[in-house]
Design a protein that fits this description.
Layout: E1 4-9, E2 12-17, E3 21-22, E4 27-32, E5 39-44, H1 46-52, E6 55-60, E7 66-67, E8 72-78, E9 82-86, E10 91-96, H2 106-109, E11 118-122, H3 125-131, H4 135-152
Antiparallel strand pairs: 1-2, 3-4, 4-5, 5-11, 6-8, 7-10, 8-9, 10-11
Length: about 150
């Protein structure tokens, strides 16, 4: 079970899992330790899923797709918008969450758990890792983004 950093902004509570790294645009990366591989599980943050609303469909790039950091790895369809999600690491998609087809709402219900998107065989995890934010840095960036969103309303 992961520990979380938590913040409340207006009436919303946002959680940041303390055991992973983050891109500034709201994607997380977690190194999967399996036989010394450079496999990295990715997903979207609690903030990003709350910002975009109830997920109706998730379309993840198929297994075998080569990605660079910032390439679109998935597309999320919600009541509010269609959102392109960018990969926080470079490499090849080796697994797609099979539960997303029948239960896309798990992205909303468990963004850090069962709602993960894909596993990527990282081309160079150490290089990509150095560019990602630690949980406290992401929490700070997310708080700023959330406050900016509130000003728009």
């Amino acid at each position: 079970m992961s520990e979380y950093l938590e913040t409340t902004i207006d009436k919303f509570i946002f959680r940041v899992a303390a055991d992973r790294l983050y891109s500034s645009d709201g994607m997380w990366a977690f190194r999967v330790e399996s036989r010394g591989s450079g496999r990295v599980r990715i997903g979207l943050t609690d903030y990003l899923q709350q910002l975009n609303g109830d997920v109706a469909f998730v379309h993840v790039k198929p297994v075998g797709t080569e990605l660079a950091v910032g390439d679109e790895v998935a597309e999320l369809e919600t009541i509010k918008a269609i959102v392109g999600l960018c990969s926080p690491v470079s490499g090849r998609v080796v697994e797609v969450n099979p539960d997303l087809d029948l239960s896309p709402e798990i992205v909303n219900q468990e963004p850090y758990g069962k709602g993960w998107l894909a596993v990527i065989e990282a081309a160079d995890w150490e290089v990509d890792r150095a560019k990602l934010l630690d949980p406290r840095a992401y929490l700070s960036a997310m708080q700023s983004q959330a406050r900016e969103e509130l000003k728009k309303e």
